[in-house]
Amino acid sequence: MLMKLCTWLCLKIRMQGRSDSIKTDNSSVERVEEYKCLETTLTNQNSIEEEIKRRLKPGNACYHSVQNVLSSRLLSKNLKIKKWRNVIVPVVLYGCETWSVILREECRLRVFENRVLRRIFGPKMDEVTREWRKLHDEELNDLYSSPYIVQVIKSRRMRWVGHVVHMGERRGVYWVLVRKP
What we know:
This protein is mostly helical. The protein contains 8 helices and 6 strands, in the order αββββααααββααα. The protein has one domain (about 1-180). The strands form 3 sheets. A two-stranded antiparallel ribbon has the order 1-2. It has a two-stranded antiparallel ribbon with strand order 3-4. A two-stranded antiparallel sheet has the order 5-6. A hairpin with a 2-residue loop joins β1 (about 20-25) and β2 (about 25-30). α1 crosses α8 (about 170-180), α2 runs antiparallel to α4 and α2 runs parallel beside α5. It is elongated and about 70 Å long.
């Protein structure tokens, strides 16, 4: 709830142009270029690029810590996928409900996801050359039936909006959602 309010305040500040502060309910809020709220950095330009880079760093660290498990032939692919969804994805997607993801960031997230999935599913022997090669994106799409990381972000955002709508008019987050800044 606080994160949504912070996002709204950054947007409100951005919309007011060069004003150094805004007033809400008899209080004044100072204009800032960026604001860190619950481990999420919000900017007055509503750019999420740096935040996604910041979230991918611990995601990469988490991936590298379980890399041997994901490439092990002793574990089933289903168990490896559960490890991916339950250990790595939450680290990357922390606070994603506030992200306004554009195509460039979607691609960056998909590259990360495809790298992990290639580790899980392993290489494939080419039938023509009889050499091992990494899986193509289309082959990953056929093998991985769960929602992709971008779809998870969109569903979490919609779920959050549903929670806010049910909060009612007395809550500040609801006020931020339904009123025009």
